[in-house]
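Comment thread on ticket #2218

A.B. wrote:
> Attaching the input chain for the structure job we discussed in standup.
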Amino acid sequence: MPRTMSVSDSVLIRVTPSTVYEQVSDPTAMGRWSPENLGARVLGEHRGTHVGMVFEGRNKRGPFRWTTRCTVTAADPGQRFAFRVHAIGARRPLLPGPIALWEYRFEAVDGGTRVTETWTDDRRAWPDLLANAFDRVATRGHTFAEFQRVNIRTTLDRLRDALEQKGAGASGGVEGGPGHG
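C.D. wrote:
> Ran it. Output below, let me know if you need it in another format.
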């Protein structure tokens, strides 16, 4: 069976596109919303989110923990944020190779922002049979597309809840959120 190479979902968040972008484009903050990500460490000078910025994300699924190396591929304030996952390892991302592309789009709509999160499988060189077998072991019976569909929904719901509850402050952002400077 051919695998699904990309899945996405959207949510309406009642804050401005720039407010959502500011939070989502900070990889150190993703652990607040993602069911798998525990946060990240930006490598090199952290002078704000920019194309080419590299970070290492810490993740867990059940008893398993791993680290990924990612590079920002799009950083358009209030419009789009994307990064490519290109290395993985238990404590350090030592195994290089195309893994996934994550993208967030922000569209101003009446009353807020439509946020669309998309996961794209970058393991194109893997035969479908091998990828499907690996996926079912790694996700306890699902393909990565099925698994990521649930993760995306959870992330978007948590992001919406956090930003709408705390985003009503004077700055329009999340209180206590890390800066981009």
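A.B. wrote:
> Thanks. Noting for the ticket: Confidence is low (pLDDT under 50) at residues 169-181.
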